[in-house]
Amino acid sequence: MAPKEKKTKEQIAAAAAAGSRKNKKKWSKGKSKDKLNHAVLFDKATYDKLLSEIPKARLITPHTVCERLKVNASLARQAIRFLRDQGLIKIVGEHHHSQYIYTRNTSA
């Protein structure tokens, strides 16, 4: 085997500087979400939409109510509770004390 060539400190520093320039990773800018401006109270139109649309949906969760009616999650949970008490929807699964899945009530 041939002996390795000895590099001077200047050559080593130049090689390191040249290599690090092209391989240097850039920091990503991070994704930012726009704040959703959902309603915190029901107005007449939204309330009518709640009574007409949501009981006909196949899957009813707080998230689906938020998406359809553009209301915040606490208002969606209250609306679901109201519809359940009226007998318009029924519970399908209770995964956790705070996660409920509902569906339309076929007997109503």
Notes on the protein architecture:
This protein is an alpha+beta fold and 108 residues long. The protein has a domain at 44-104: Arc Repressor Mutant, subunit A, CATH 1.10.10. The chain is 44% helix and 13% strand. The protein has four helices and two strands. The protein has helices at residues 9-23, 44-53, 62-69, 73-86, and strands spanning 89-96, 99-104. Strands 1-2 form a two-stranded antiparallel ribbon. Strand 1 and strand 2 (99-104) form a beta hairpin. Helix 3 (62-69) crosses helix 4 (73-86). The model has no long low-confidence stretch (mean pLDDT 81).
Q: Would you count the extended β strands for me?
A: 2
Which residues sit in consecutive blocks of at least 5 with pLDDT less than 50? none
Structural class by SSE content = alpha+beta
CATH superfamily of the domain at 44-104: Winged helix-like DNA-binding domain superfamily/Winged helix DNA-binding domain
CATH uppermost class of the domain at 44-104: Mainly Alpha
Major β-sheet, in short?
2 strands, antiparallel
Ends distance: 89 Å
Could you report the average pLDDT, rounded to the nearest whole number?
A: 81
Radius of gyration: 30 Å
Net shape? elongated
Region (Disordered): 1-32
Biased composition (Basic residues): 21-30
Pfam families: Ribosomal_S25
Family: Belongs to the eukaryotic ribosomal protein eS25 family.
Task: Summarize this structure briefly.
With 108 residues, the protein is α+β, with helices and mostly antiparallel strands. It is built from 4 helices and 2 strands, in the order ααααββ.
